[in-house]
Design goal:
Elements lengths: L1 H8 L5 H18 L3 H8 L6 H25 L9 H31 L10 H4 L4 H31 L3 H33 L4 H57 L11 H5 L6 H19 L7 H8 L5 H17 L18 H17 L2 H10 L5
Length: 390
Amino acid sequence: MTAVAIWRALGGADARRRSLWGCFLGFSIALWTKTEIVRRGLNNSAITDASILVKHYSAGMAILAILYYIVAVYGHYPPEGDMARAVRVSRFIQRVASKTALFAFLLMTIMFFTIVDRSHPSDRFLSEHAGQWGATAYMTVFYTYLGSASAICLYQWAGAFRHENRKLLRVGLGMMAFAMVLGVVYSFGRMLFMWYWLVEQPSYHTAFDVDAGTEAMQQLLFVFFALGVSVPATENGLRRARAWRALARIYPMWHELMTAFPNMPMEPPRSRFEELTRRDVDADLQLNRWVHDMADAIEKLRHHVPDSLMAAAQDLADRGDAAAAQAYWIKAALAAKQQGTPAGPVAAFEQQQAADQDDEAAWLRRVAKAYKKTTPTQAQNLLADAGAPA
């Protein structure tokens, strides 16, 4: 949690990133207060049991940051359609979340310093204060706030999970929703135990087992939440990796096309290493540029070859391989252009239809693979078969 908080602090300043940074920062502080050295150091300080107050402050601020993260996400949806209810709830959260948190923290602080028995430092606050009305009242305020906020997050993420079609994002939302299920059970479960213990005082071992069991549930919550938040980022990372692989595959064909038409790209083509290690352009954007650059170059090449070249390339391709046929055509057309064939009428060319950039990139990888195997001799023979002028 600490590492992610530091990483996200350096990742940008938009509302989503700020909210997630606040969330991970709050949870990381809360987790540090659970470690033995920090817990005992704070509890034995001038403010007895200070780790409890610090932990609850930080956890409360983390859950508040999650609520603001939800608002930042759902604020982009239009106020109609399937997500209309989520939008209304998010806007309501935005209006009341800060005031509710401020009231809860103020009330907790007053109760902590007045009615909670802090006559001696405690190591396990829940089990050591079992059956005490002051600690029960204090924890009721905190768990009501924490459980209610977790329930709101569960409502939003479960709704988004039902409407999401992207697989990885759906998995992430499912993990985050499950984490909030654990949060609701943890908060209200602990609160019910403390109220029950007011009626019937438990043994120390019973209270300790409940404390340890629910603590393990909370640790599992952190794991699922961290994994769930990371999955969408993983999806983006996988998408960038796919774009980078596509760039690596189609580079030779793109480079030769751009060399033939040096005024077409936004800037002169660089070496493979320089192009694939650029930091100034996102891989997706770079791939999109290359796709359009190659389409424009092919359109210009159509003026330098005979109309029959496409049919000749299709005859040469094994078993009607459309990608190989297109690769043969591009290689032959580039040879014709390099030989100084003057521009003429536009020639026939069969372009594969693609639903989106991913499909287009996948098709170009196939063409580039066949293009890499095409020799200059094959290109010349193909031009001769198509009746191109020598």
